[in-house]
Design goal:
The protein is built from 13 helices and 15 strands. By secondary structure, it is of the alpha/beta class. The chain has a domain of about 250 residues: NAD(P)-binding Rossmann-like Domain (Rossmann fold, 3-Layer(aba) Sandwich). Helix 3 runs parallel beside helix 4. One of its GO terms (cellular component) is cytoplasm. Keywords: Membrane, Transmembrane, Transmembrane helix. It comes from Agrocybe pediades.
Length: about 350
């Protein structure tokens, strides 16, 4: 694939997740990169206001907004059809949105078969979940996956994110007219973003779910542990992938699976929830600190998917990114547990409903 270096016209990128935690941090780094002068972002944004548009353009100046959401099917198809590049940092589980992106990209490919479009999709490492249901298990029994030689067929069927990831994998690996597809799988993304959204939505979801209990909690006893990655490291990995994709020298399709995880020790879920609970107690938001196993009145609302996402372990090796020269430097500077108190305080400022 030839490089786009020296191209006179700007490359248009249809971007989903511009107001999100990871997506906005990616745009911050893109704005600082040598791609910025030749890259125009078309961002899908819901509930557009002048203030929201102003703040987004402070993050990335060369940006235009298309109002809509992931369920705006015709808009998503049209914008994907108009773009040679689509980056989806929004929901990893909206399969209707993914189908519409792929339909749009396939329309574009039929118009210009010499230049296959690129789709970068952000999934998650919950695909590697062992469904331990929060129980303590022997470390030797936890599967360890590496992204070199990886395929979705290695995973148990029916796991999280596979509804979307399978669609993308098929589109990128078929023999007749494959798209250029890349799926990135970050672990627990933590830290404080420099972008539009400063903290992960997971914090607000967990705090909201536990408000009625006045104490943080876990699915089961919470012995399960997760790989993690600082938001700046995850965004830097995406930028590295995108830059190489523009230059035409990155693995796509069957080789387009990229795990994003640091080498730092995995963190048990009960320790994560315990730190959050202690901060909320000190802030007089919750009546109790620490965490405890959640009752069925909370977990039942999330169904079996909640147990799979939040009750299991995942162990992976980010071999592909390291082969590209990527290092999780921010994750080495500050750990997940060290970062959490600041994140919780910022989340409380970002979302006043958590204090109600």
């Amino acid at each position: 694939m030839s490089s786009e270096a020296g191209a006179k016209s700007k490359r248009n990128v249809f971007f989903l997740g511009a107001t999100g935690f990871l997506g906005s941090q990616f745009l911050v780094l893109l704005a600082r990169s040598d791609l910025a002068p030749t890259t125009h972002i078309v961002a899908l944004v819901r509930n557009v206001t002048p203030d929201k548009e102003k703040r987004l353009k402070e993050v990335y100046q060369d940006l235009s907004i298309i109002e809509g959401d992931l369920d705006s099917h015709d808009i998503v198809k049209e914008q994907a059809s108009n773009a040679r590049y689509v980056i989806n940092c929004a929901s990893s589980d909206n399969d209707a949105c993914v189908r519409n992106i792929l339909i749009g990209l396939e329309e574009r490919q039929r118009r210009d078969p010499a230049h296959p479009p690129l789709y970068i999709h952000v999934s998650g490492l919950a695909i590697a979940n062992d469904n331990a249901r929060g129980e303590k298990v022997e470390e030797s029994t936890i599967p360890v996956y590496t992204d070199i030689g990886f395929s979705l067929g290695q995973l148990p069927p029916g796991g999280p994110h596979l509804n979307c990831d399978t669609l993308i994998s098929v589109a990128g690996s078929r023999k007749d007219g494959p798209l250029r597809t890349i799926i990135a799988y970050p672990g627990w993304i933590y830290g404080v973003s420099e972008g539009y959204r400063k903290t992960t939505a997971a914090l607000r979801v967990f705090i909201g779910a536990c408000k009625s209990l006045q104490q943080m909690g876990t699915w089961g006893p919470g012995h399960n542990s997760f790989s993690s990655i600082h938001v700046k490291d995850a965004a830097n990995a995406l930028l590295m992938i995108f830059k190489r994709a523009v230059a035409g020298n990155v693995d796509v399709g069957t080789g387009g699976h990229y795990f994003l995880a640091s080498d730092e020790p995995t963190v048990p879920f009960r320790e994560i929830m315990g730190v959050i609970g202690d901060v909320l107690y000190k802030q007089k938001v919750f009546a109790n600190g620490g965490s405890r196993p959640l009752p069925a009145s909370v977990t039942d609302a999330y169904g079996e998917l909640g147990w799979v996402l939040l009750g299991g372990n995942h162990r992976v090796k980010a071999s592909r990114m390291k082969r590209l020269g990527w290092t999780p430097s921010e994750s080495r500077k500050i750990s997940l547990l060290e970062s959490l108190p600041t994140e919780v305080q910022i989340a409380l400022r970002e979302d006043k409903t958590l204090l109600a």
